[in-house]
Design a protein that fits this description.
The chain has one domain: Cytochrome P450 (Cytochrome p450), CATH 1.10.630. The protein is 52% helix and 10% strand. The structure holds protoporphyrin IX containing FE.
C-alpha cells in the first residue's frame, strides 16, 4: 500500500469509527431487504480485499454461498444488492427492464473517466444516454456501417498475421509468442479505424496501444472505492495518477479528433468514423452539441470497450485450445471442411457455417466473461425483486460469472466443453431466458455484442487455420486471473506456433 504506516493507523481508526457507526446507528427504515452480512464483517472483509490480491468477485462468490443468490451489502445508508440468479436477473433486467436500467452516480475514478456521466456506460437512464447509444448503434454498430469498416478489419488481420509469422520465424524466440500482445495490436488497428475512419500512422497506433497498456496497469479496473467511498482514503495517490493519465489521454486523442474535424469541414475527409458522428451530434432534445472533453470520453470509451474485452476473450479462447488438443483439432477440421485444406483465409461470410467455432467462443465467454460482474445498475424508483424491497437509492450488481458456473444449468461447470452449445441454441441476449449473460441483458445490454461476435470468431478462426498452437515444452497453461480493465490471464499465454503450410 502506498501510505505510510502512521497514516494507515489513522485510517484504520477512522474505519473503526465508521464500523461503530454502522453497528450502533442502525438505519430505521422498515424495508424488507435481501439478507446479508453485518456491517462490521463487511468492513473487515473490504479492508482485507483492499490490502490483498483477493477480488471483490471472490468475496461476493463466498457471500452468495452463504446468503443465497440475492444479498445485500450495507455500507452507510446505500444498500448494494448482489444478484447471482438467472431468474432474478431476468426479472430485473428484462421483465422490469426500464426500472433497473439506470447507473449509480459515479464516484472517484469513474466520474473522472466518464466526464461526469457522459459516457454511454456511465450515463443514467434518460435522454442523454438514449441519444448517445442510438448514435453509436446507427452510425457504427448496425449491420450496414459495420460492413463499411471491413477494410479496417482486414488491415488489423494483416498486421496480426505478419507479426505472428515474423515471431514464429524468429530463432531467438524459438517459435514462442505472447498471444495477447499480437492480438491487442491488431485490435487497436481495427477499432481505431472504426473510430477515426482511416488507417492511422504506425506512430499513432503505437502511442494509443502504449497509453492503454499504462492505463490498464494503473489499477483503474479496480475501483473498490467507487463502490465504497469509505475506502477513498486509500486511493488518494492513485487518484492523482489517474488525473495525470486522464490529461495524457486528452493530449493523445484531441489532435486526432481535431485532424478529423478539419478534414470534415474542409471537405477532405476519406471514409467515415465514429468521431464524425460525435462532432455533429446534438443531444438532449437537440439543445446542445458535445464538448471536446465529452468527445474524448466517448472515443476512449469506444476504443477501450471494443479492444480490451475482445482481446481478453481471444487470449482465453487460445489458452483453452492450447490446453485441449482435441478441441483445437476439431476446430481445425471444421475450418478445413468449410475452406478446403489449402483454401483461402476465413472471411466474415464463412463464419456462419462454423458451428463448432461459435461453440468454442460461447464456452470461452461462459468460463471467462471479461467482466465477472456487469457494470453497476441503479433503479429509477423503489421496487421489488424476488419478493424483497429494492429502495430507490440502491445499487445492484449482477454476477455473470456465477451464472455461467451454476451446476443446475451447466453440468460440470468448470470444464471446457464446447459441445454443450451444439445441442442447444443459447441466446446471448437472454430476452426469453437467461442461461449466461457475458454481455449483460435488457436495455443496458452491451451494444458491441455483434461486433465482438464478429471479431472474436474471425480472429480465432484465422489463428487456428494458419498455425498449430502448442504449450511450451514442460509447462502447463496457467489460468490464474487478474483484474485489469477486464479479467485477464495473470501470466499472459505464451504458446509455440507452427505454420500449418510449412508442416
Ligand atoms: C467480448 C466482448 C465484450 C463483452 C463481454 C462486453 C460486455 C459488456 C457488459 C457486461 C456490459 C454492461 C452491461 C450492463 O450494464 O448490464 C457492456 C456495456 C457496454 N459495452 Fe460491451 N462488451 C464487449 C465488447 C464491446 C464492444 C466491442 C463494444 C464496442 C463499442 C462495447 C461497448 C459497450 C458499451 C458502450 C457499453 C455500455 C452500454 C450502456 O450502458 O448502455 N463492448 N459490455
Amino acid at each position: 500500500m502506498e501510505e505510510s504506516a502512521a497514516t494507515l493507523i489513522v485510517y484504520l481508526l477512522l474505519a473503526s469509527g465508521a464500523l461503530l457507526w454502522l453497528v450502533f446507528i442502525r438505519n430505521k427504515e422498515k424495508i424488507h431487504l435481501p439478507p446479508g452480512p453485518p456491517g462490521w464483517l463487511i468492513i473487515i472483509s473490504l479492508l482485507r480485499i483492499n490490502f490483498s490480491n483477493h477480488s471483490l468477485q471472490d468475496y461476493a462468490y463466498k457471500l452468495h454461498q452463504k446468503y443465497g443468490s440475492i444479498l445485500t451489502i450495507r455500507m452507510g445508508s446505500r444498500p448494494l444488492i448482489m444478484v447471482s440468479s438467472h431468474e432474478l436477473a431476468h426479472e430485473a433486467l428484462v421483465q422490469k427492464g426500464s426500472i433497473f436500467a439506470s447507473r449509480p452516480p459515479p464516484q472517484g475514478l469513474i466520474k473522472l473517466f466518464s466526464t461526469d456521466q457522459t459516457s454511454i456506460n456511465g450515463a443514467p437512464y434518460g435522454a442523454l444516454w438514449r441519444d448517445l447509444r442510438k448514435n453509436l448503434m446507427t452510425q457504427v454498430l448496425n449491420t450496414s456501417p459495420l460492413k463499411s469498416f471491413r477494410e479496417g478489419r482486414e488491415w488489423g488481420m494483416e498486421v496480426l498475421m505478419e507479426s505472428l509469422i515474423a515471431a514464429s520465424k524468429n530463432k531467438e524466440l524459438g517459435g514462442v509468442v505472447t498471444v495477447i500482445d499480437h492480438v491487442r495490436d491488431a485490435l487497436v488497428c481495427m477499432v481505431s479505424y472504426m473510430c477515426f475512419g482511416l488507417r492511422l500512422e504506425e506512430k499513432s497506433i503505437a502511442d494509443i496501444a502504449a497509453f492503454w497498456t499504462e492505463l490498464r496497469h494503473s489499477g483503474v479496473g479496480l475501483p473498490l472505492n467507487d463502490l465504497f467511498p469509505l475506502l477513498n482514503v486509500f486511493y488518494r495517490k492513485q487518484g492523482k495518477r489517474m488525473r495525470d493519465l486522464r490529461g495524457r489521454q486528452h493530449e493523445l486523442l484531441v489532435p486526432l479528433i481535431e485532424r478529423r474535424r478539419r478534414a470534415l469541414t474542409e471537405g477532405k475527409e476519406v471514409g467515415r468514423g465514429y468521431v464524425d458522428s460525435l462532432l455533429f451530434l446534438t443531444v438532449e432534445g437537440g439543445r446542445r452539441r458535445l464538448s471536446e472533453e465529452e468527445v474524448v470520453t466517448l472515443c476512449s470509451e469506444f476504443l477501450n470497450a471494443a479492444a480490451d474485452t475482445t482481446s481478453s476473450v481471444i487470449q482465453w479462447a487460445m489458452a483453452r485450445l492450447v490446453m485441449n488438443e482435441d478441441c483445437q483439432g476439431k476446430l481445425y477440421r471444421e475450418i478445413a471442411d468449410v475452406m478446403g485444406k489449402r483454401g483461402r483465409a476465413v472471411e466474415e461470410e464463412d463464419l456462419r457455417k462454423m458451428v463448432y467455432l461459435e461453440a468454442v467462443v460461447k464456452e470461452t465467454l461462459r468460463l471467462h466473461p471479461p467482466e465477472k460482474i456487469v457494470l453497476s445498475h441503479a433503479v429509477t424508483r423503489a421496487c421489488s425483486l424476488g419478493g424483497y424491497d429494492v429502495p430507490a437509492h440502491a445499487w445492484l450488481n449482477f454476477h455473470v460469472w456465477e451464472m455461467g458456473m451454476d451446476p443446475k444449468v451447466w453440468p460440470n461447470p468448470s470444464e471446457f466443453i464446447p459441445e454443450r452449445h451444439l445441442n442447444e441454441e443459447i441466446d446471448l441476449t437472454g430476452s426469453k431466458q437467461i442461461k449466461m449473460m457475458p454481455f449483460g441483458v435488457g436495455r443496458r445490454i452491451c451494444p458491441g455484442l455483434d461486433l465482438a461476435m464478429l471479431h472474436i470468431p474471425l480472429i480465432v478462426a484465422r489463428l487456428v487455420q494458419k498455425f498449430v498452437w502448442e504449450c511450451k515444452p514442460g509447462e502447463v497453461v496457467d489460468l490464474t486471473e487478474t483484474h485489469e480493465f477486464s479479467i485477464v490471464m495473470k501470466n499472459p499465454l505464451q504458446a509455440i506456433i507452427k505454420e500449418r503450410d510449412s508442416q
